TrEMBL record, chain A:
Name of the molecule in the record: ER lumen protein-retaining receptor
InterPro entries: ER_ret_rcpt
GO cellular component, one term: COPI-coated vesicle membrane
Pfam families: ER_lumen_recept
Membrane topology: Multi-pass membrane protein
Signal peptide: none
GO biological process, one term: protein transport
Phylogenetic lineage: Eukaryota, Metazoa, Chordata, Tunicata, Appendicularia
Subcellular location per the Swiss-Prot or TrEMBL entry: Cytoplasmic vesicle, COPI-coated vesicle membrane; Endoplasmic reticulum membrane
Originating species: Oikopleura dioica (Tunicate)
Assigned keywords, A-Z: Cytoplasmic vesicle, Endoplasmic reticulum, ER-Golgi transport, Membrane, Protein transport, Receptor, Transmembrane, Transmembrane helix, Transport
Amino acid sequence: MNIFRLFGDLSHLAAIAILLLKIWKTRSCAGVSGKTQLLFAVCFITRYIDLFLHFVSLYNTEKVMKLIYISASVFTCYLIFFKFKATYDGNHDSMRAEFLIVPAAGLACLINTKFDAIEILWTFSIYLEAVAILPQLFLISKTGEAETITSHYLFAQGSYRALYILNWIYRYHYESHVDTIAIVAGVVQTILYCDFFYLYITKVVKGQKIVLPA
Amino acid sequence: APKVAPKDEL
């Protein structure tokens, strides 16, 4: 474990917590893409499928973190699609998730390290996570604005994988550890946030709200 | 040569 991965995971946890708090406190999921949250839940379930297959006692923080990620993302989807369904902005959350899931699944079958079920599910999860934020960014471009709290959520979510890139550089240098699939997908994922990062740093940090030229 | 990573990351 290195400092980059530690802060990456903390940033990821923070993102999940910020979103849950936003929805729970404001009792509304306006401005939040339900599709992105569904895709993240699918990512966690397919990536941590080993938890379900051979459930071993919660003997380390990693297992606890995996369970937190899965339960928090499923609970977030429950809040969006059931509890606060009336506030779900379905009209603007209109990016076709199939256009992300099918290519990720296809690519996972073509480019993977081992052609077996668990490995392909893991690879699918990595590819899907890289593009899972697109419906959320699409929604913001459609509504033309993002609530400040949602911007903080996006910043934490984007920072997590950016920190993981630093973690991979560190591990390559000190542990000669390399996972090309995760690295390439992580770089693509982080690039998708660049536009938002620019807006966040130039606007939200100065207390302004993000308003896109609609 | 760098070895392929074990799945030890979240």
